[in-house]
Amino acid sequence: MNSQEKALLRKLFRLKIHESDGDTFESLFSNIMFYAEPDFQQIKPWGNIGDRKNDGYIKTKGIYYQVYAPEDIRKSYPESITKLKDDFAGLIKNWTPVNEFYFLINDKFQGVSPDAEQTINKLVSDHGLTKGKIMTAKDLESIAFNLDEDKIYAITGFLPDLNSITRLDYSVVNEVVKYIMELPIDKKTGEIKFPDWGEKIKFNELSPITENFLNFASQKLGALNQYLSNETFLAEELQTQMIGLYEEVKKQVSFKDEEYSGDYIFWEMVKKSSPKNESLYESSVITIISKYFESCDIFEEPKKSEL
């Protein structure tokens, strides 16, 4: 895997960490350890005897693990100290020999209190252990991403095909589409004035049918422009996304080829940016396209000699 893929897999892994509490996190830990240590043995609670304060161990090395996964480590840090002491006391009472002891906390990459570090250091020293430490999500991530690629994928899940991911951010488009769809019908009477874009429509080889769709959609331009004037970040993102989509589609076509006219570019943009293949969604998307068509952000501006 390349560096970009590995970065995406790390994001998937971190999402798993943030979504894992209690038994779910313990299962994630055990799955990773099964791959990392062939001799690792998971211990599950059994009847009324529980797990005897041992969530997993490597018997041949005398290494023991206890897992703690609260919903909010910052609110639970006093409980984590108590659990650390109680679990270790129960461990040395029921298991032997204990050479190393690791207390894994799902801190969700927030860090743990210094009290936890001091407590385990004292336990290691007082009981003559070879090693011992507080492990966190970062330590578990390090173990996971030092595994072979197939094992990393088994833990994180496979990535989608990167080539099929469009650059269009649908969360941005959807928000604007939702606003347009909820606009009431303008019942004002009088002559409708369409934008003065006749020459641009001809220059980009848009058909009369496409022109009609643009004209109809442009009736909501005033409301859209007013909405975006109060949403600066959204407006900038939407503009960037639509320009990027236009440039992407334009690379696929040539104005010299009749099969790939401006109509093709226009309807490809509608198809690629519409959340659903339904007329309500598509007409709202056309309103967005008309905004950037009028402002000359997308499609080609006629040459002055041809005006």
Question: Can you tell me about this structure?
Answer:
- α7 (170-181) crosses α13, α9 (208-217) packs across α13 and α11 packs across α12 (262-273).
- Helix content is 54%, strand content 7%.
- β3, α3 (73-94) and β4 (100-105) form a beta-alpha-beta unit.
- The chain has 13 helices and 5 strands.
- It has helices at 3-19, 22-36, 73-94, 114-126, 137-144, 149-156, 170-181, 198-203, 208-217, 221-229, 232-250, 262-273, 279-294, and strands at residues 40-42, 56-58, 63-68, 100-105, 131-135.
- Residues 162-167 have low confidence and may be disordered.
- The protein is of the alpha/beta class.
- The protein has 2 domains: 3-162, Trna Endonuclease, Chain: A, domain 1 (3-Layer(aba) Sandwich), CATH 3.40.1350; 166-306, no CATH class.
- The protein has a 5-stranded mixed beta sheet with strand order 1-2-3-4-5, sandwiched between helices.
